[in-house]
Every structure is written in C-alpha cells, then in structure tokens.
Amino acid sequence: MSFQAHLDAIEEKTGLTPRQLLDQAHARGLDAPGTKAGEVVAWLAEEHGLGRGHAMALVHVLRNGPGISSRHVGSTGSHRDESDTLWLDGRATRPT
C-alpha cells in the first residue's frame, strides 16, 4: 500500500482529512518535540479507531511534513506513490 493510500484510507475510516487530524494533534500538543509515537498511536486508536499502521503513517507526516522519499515514485512495487509530496487535504480535492 502506498503512503498516499494509507492517508486516503485514514480519511475513509475517520471521515476526516489527514490535515484535519494533524490540526487535532497540534491542538493536543502531540506535535511537540519529544512526543512519543505511542502517544499519537494511542490517541488515534482511542478517538478514531485507527490501527497502528495507519496511525504511524500520520505520525510520519506529523514529524516530517508531507514530503516523502522519492524512492518509490514511479516504481512498480506495492509501495509506489505518484509523487514525493503527500496530499493532506482530502481525496476529493486532490489534483489529478
């Protein structure tokens, strides 16, 4: 599953865009330096029913922003992504 597909699945499961969840994390101080991934994972599981894999995708974005390695861009593997920049504002608004 691509990184973007994980974020799209998060939106499908929660009804919230990745950016909305990042805003919630910020409001809770979960983007502060030193915050453990487990704290974010626990919050996402408790409040939004997300599993560890999807939660860790959001942890990555929370810590590193929307940029990802270009290693899988244009590849044919299962982890391929269309771009090295993740779209955080919802599937319906993603440019084609």
Question: Which properties best describe this structure?
Answer:
single chain, mainly alpha
Explained architecture:
The protein is mainly alpha-helical. The chain is globular, with a radius of gyration of 13 Å. It contains four helices and no strands.
Itemize the secondary structure elements and their pairings.
Layout: H1 3-14, H2 18-27, H3 37-48, H4 52-64
Helix pairs in contact: 1-4, 3-4
Total domain units: 1
The run of helices and strands is HHHH
The main pleated sheet reads as: none
Secondary structure category: mainly alpha
- The rounded Rg comes to 13 Å
Strand residues, percent: under 5%
Average of per-residue pLDDT values: 93
In the predicted model, the low-confidence regions spanning at least 5 consecutive residues are none
Q: Summary?
A:
With 96 residues, this protein is mostly helical. It is built from four helices and no strands.
